[in-house]
């Protein structure tokens, strides 16, 4: 295993972030909720609510309006990628707005799909939490317009933004493949399987 860093942020996506349809669609990260701990199940992520219920991420298979496509039940990214994103798009590209469930803070300035293709292991009190089936979370047009902060951005500018955010800079999709649900917390160590 190769050490990647520690979990710096956990968040649940309570609803869709792409609003509207057709050419007027736009991206709004307001449905993101930062949490201290998260439960990982084979269906996706959820977090404890104040009333002892569980808040399901919109990509969880059990969410009533699930946006799960099977490969996108979880999303992870890296804090160092935000350095590159802010350098390109400005300080208004706030930490977490790319909508990852798990953001890892580590020493490497760039993590590629080759670095994480074999999956991740998160240390938990319940034992190792394996994340597998890692694929790049490709950016969409609304999120690229959001990054540019220009609703009427040119086709060329949007294409350039999408290309910049691709190849893992925006994050990676994966699935939790452990035999039983686990709880992950901020500060947990994360390793790449090799």
Structure overview:
By secondary structure, the chain is an alpha+beta fold. The chain has 4 helices and 14 strands. The chain has one domain: PK beta-barrel domain-like (M1 Pyruvate Kinase, Domain 3, Beta Barrel). Helices cover 18% and strands 34% of the residues. The strands form 3 sheets. A 7-stranded mixed β-barrel has the order 1-9-8-12-11-10-14. The longest helix has 11 residues.
Features:
194 residues; alpha+beta; M1 Pyruvate Kinase, Domain 3; four-stranded antiparallel β-sheet; 4 helices; 34% strand
Approximate helicity band: 10-25%
Q: In what range is the share of β-strand residues? A: 25-35%
The total count of helices amounts to 4
Task: Let me know the CATH homologous superfamily.
Answer: PK beta-barrel domain-like
Distance between the termini: 6 Å
**Sequence of strands across the biggest β-sheet:** 1-9-8-12-11-10-14
């Amino acid at each position: 295993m190769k050490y990647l860093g520690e979990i710096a942020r956990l968040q649940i996506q309570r609803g869709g972030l792409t609003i509207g349809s057709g050419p007027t669609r736009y991206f709004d990260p307001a449905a993101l909720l930062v949490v201290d701990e998260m439960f990982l199940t084979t269906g996706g992520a959820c977090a404890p609510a104040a009333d002892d219920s569980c808040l399901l991420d919109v990509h969880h298979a059990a969410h009533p309006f699930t946006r799960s496509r099977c490969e996108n039940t979880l999303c992870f990214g890296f804090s160092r990628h935000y350095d590159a994103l802010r350098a390109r798009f400005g300080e208004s590209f706030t930490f977490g707005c790319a909508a990852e469930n798990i953001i890892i803070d580590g020493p490497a300035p760039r993590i590629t799909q080759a670095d994480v293709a074999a999956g991740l292991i998160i240390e938990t009190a319940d034992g190792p939490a394996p994340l597998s089936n890692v694929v790049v979370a490709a950016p969409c047009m609304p999120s690229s317009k959001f990054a540019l902060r220009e609703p009427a951005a040119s086709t060329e500018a949007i294409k350039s933004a999408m290309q910049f955010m691709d190849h893992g800079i925006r994050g990676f999709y994966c699935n939790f493949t452990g035999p039983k649900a686990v709880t992950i917390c901020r500060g947990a160590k994360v390793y790449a399987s090799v």
